[in-house]
Specification:
9 helices; 33% helix; 4-stranded antiparallel β-sheet; 6-stranded mixed β-sheet; alpha/beta
Length: 272
């Protein structure tokens, strides 16, 4: 039974149903059920160790669930291979940046657009015209996305030469360039200043309606301002979900944060 509903009228694009994950004697997720509507922005928060990253890792195939199912656009996701995610219309950012250090910024973003490549490996090896056209199209797509995020001037640089906030924008560009239908954002505000967090919030809100977004984030202020709905995990269980204001006032949510001496749910630095 799903404990919450996707935004009315949008339909459920993604669903986790009774998802349980155990590592030995530790239960990381305990019968977690979540729905995410097409075009909806869903925030997932909770104290450290609540199971948020485990949830993402199950969706991406890094971790296999002990029981329960995942559904994407009406079909069951079973034993998903991470290299198939882009083809399924799913993209993810990592808690760090996860950029390829030996590739330029442009090449990193082009790697995120591979689902649009039409020419096969043989065409590329033989240098056939179709492969050249493919490469130009991917390059233009990547440059356009870098431009949208204000990073076109660093396209030729290596990631390590850039300030961390710029690396974060490049990582987001790589995720967005593939035009995903489901975007998983894993702590995208980590290491960012207040102005950069506000800019990120505006970017996330701009995605509403064009793709489903699931956001795991420590910055509760960002989650509350950017998301249509919020799900709260604690000790691997869903303890609350609903619109941001309702969740903010939920007694069990306040207890989960205040009980750890980490600041209330209203605190912008409260752990998630």
């Amino acid at each position: 039974m799903i404990e919450g509903e996707a935004t009315p009228g949008r339909g459920a694009a993604f669903a986790a149903r009774e998802l349980t994950v155990r590592f030995g004697g530790i239960t990381a997720l305990d019968s977690v059920s979540i729905e995410l509507g097409a075009g909806e922005v869903l925030g997932v928060i909770g104290p450290n160790g609540a199971g948020k990253t485990t949830l993402f890792n199950v969706i991406c195939g890094f971790v296999q669930a002990t029981s329960g199912t995942l559904e994407w656009k009406g079909s069951t996701l079973a034993k998903v291979r991470t290299n198939r995610l882009a083809g399924l219309g799913i993209a993810r950012t990592l808690q760090g940046v996860g950029l390829f250090p030996g590739l330029t910024v442009l090449e990193n973003v082009m790697a995120g657009a591979q689902r649009f490549r039409k020419a096969g490996i043989a065409s590329a090896l033989l240098g056939l015209p179709r492969s050249d056209r493919d490469e130009r199209a991917l390059r233009e797509r990547a440059l356009s996305m870098l431009g949208e995020l204000g990073c076109e001037d660093v396209a030729a640089r290596l990631p390590a030469t850039l300030p961390y906030p710029v690396q974060k924008r490049v990582a987001l560009a790589r995720a967005l360039v593939g035009e995903p239908e489901l975007l998983l954002l894993d702590e995208p505000a980590g290491g960012l200043g207040a102005d950069e967090v506000r800019e990120l919030g505006e970017r996330i809100r701009s995605l509403r309606g064009s793709m489903a977004v699931m956001l795991v984030e420590h910055r509760v202020d960002l989650v509350m301002s950017a998301c249509d709905r919020v799900v709260v995990l604690d000790f691997g269980q869903v303890i609350a979900q609903g619109d941001p204001e309702s969740v903010r006032r939920e007694e069990r949510v306040l207890e989960a944060y205040l009980g750890r001496g980490a600041g209330g749910a209203d605190s912008p630095e409260a752990p998630a």
